[in-house]
Amino acid sequence: MSETLLxxxxxxxxxxxxxxxxxxxxxxxxxxxxxxxxxxxxxLLAEEACLLVIEQAFEPGDPGEIGVALLRQPGxxxxxxEYKGLPVDFSRLPDGAGLGLTLMRxxxxxxxxxxxxxNGRRIVFSASxxxxxxxxxxxxxxxxxxxxxxxxxPPRLRMMTPDDALALARCIYRSxxxxxxxxxxxxxxxxxxxxxxxxxxxxxxxxxxxIVGHVALLRDGxxxxxxxxGIAVVDPRYRGHNLFKTMKQTLAEQAQARGLYGIYSExxxxxxxxxxxxxxxxxxxxxxxxxxxxxDVDPRRIETCPQGDRAAVALxxxxxxxxxxxxxxxxxxxxxxxxxxxxxxxxxxxxxEPGPAAEPGGETRLGVRVRPELGMAFLTVEAFGPDxxxxxxxxxxxxxxxRIDAIYLDLPLQDPATAAGCARLEALGLFFxxxxxxxxxxxxxxxxxxxxxxxNVEAIVTVSPAGRALLDHVVAERRRxxxxxx
Length: 486
What we know:
Layout: E1 4-12, H1 18-31, H2 36-57, E2 65-73, E3 76-83, H3 98-107, E4 110-115, E5 121-128, H4 140-143, E6 156-159, H5 165-176, H6 187-196, E7 199-205, E8 211-218, E9 226-234, H7 243-257, E10 262-268, H8 273-281, E11 284-294, E12 310-319, E13 326-328, H9 335-345, E14 349-351, E15 365-371, E16 376-383, H10 388-401, E17 406-412, H11 416-426, E18 431-436, E19 444-450, H12 465-482
Parallel strand pairs: 9-10, 13-14, 16-17
Antiparallel strand pairs: 1-2, 2-3, 3-5, 4-5, 6-7, 7-8, 8-9, 10-12, 11-12, 15-16, 17-19, 18-19
Helix pairs in contact: 1-2, 2-3, 5-6, 7-8
């Protein structure tokens, strides 16, 4: 992730120094423009995190230290606490010690507990920087959403610049109201992502400079070799002009020129249009994520059939550059499907034969990213340890209690433990979602968990036989592992 170090502080791990650390974090956040309410949340988070580290990772008299780093990321302030103390299992804290952790998770937009091996441990939490929402820029006429005039000329395509951020926010408002991902309604955040290179966008520009279409490539970091296609929007007045297809084709050429391996995307299944656009470019389905879209997502002027509490998306992958040859370890019960998927995509993959199941001997490394505004969370297994299943179970319970609707778990297919341990994770109620090539320096198997959602899977739209076969596998696995009806 593109980031700038704002300030750093190192203090002995002693309770009396918690208050100065808290005040230090508040002072830096205040300089970044945070309002009083947000500052209070950051203070509480900092205080609870420091106390948790001091009480759980250091014994009385231990001359340990806590390092505090404040980092500026596009649209976010990140606070990292770094320490070299006793290893702590945050899924099994002693009675009474978990209260502070529960409070932290309730206050934080996003929080991660990272094991850095010999470099110690790291607790990271972040908060969105204060920026003006699109409503501050809209006129009273635009808020009333009047009927728009018909276009007089076809729009032209070009690459987006940071100066287009406000025009994009207006376009999304006209097309989706306030039902899209939250950050797109803040022009300053869009501008920062473009300037940092984490977002590469193509726009359709009408007469007069109005933005009437947009598709982006989103990168996890400047060195990422795979990108996510997203924020695909076409003004209702310009639908039916193949803008999505031509914009994504332009971005595919950009990805190829930059040496990126491929583009993955989540296509709506409420209608066939984005799926057909992906197929027209040569992209292939790699999975279906049920319950991915909140119910209030509103694609204006498109007739859809309700899918229940939340809607599904189809995962697609488009190769744009030769990727490394890899050996992958597919769980036996998913292997035929994954072999077919790799063959359809043209990936250079060999499938390792399963060996004797061995208990992982290292330490579990599990990344957790929560999107409370979307009701979803993403867990990433970075390293298998003997307590992985216990940690995943802990997070599932915690996220369900926080009313997170859809939880996704990514397993590295290059690790033999994925083939051996997938069934134990599925016993928790997780089931097959799909495969995303090259997502985390290799292919990942994505499992999914739904928090008591009522779904109408019969309303999921597919546009190809391969897509239908994938969806049938997902639905069958859900029924097998959770007892839910098709």
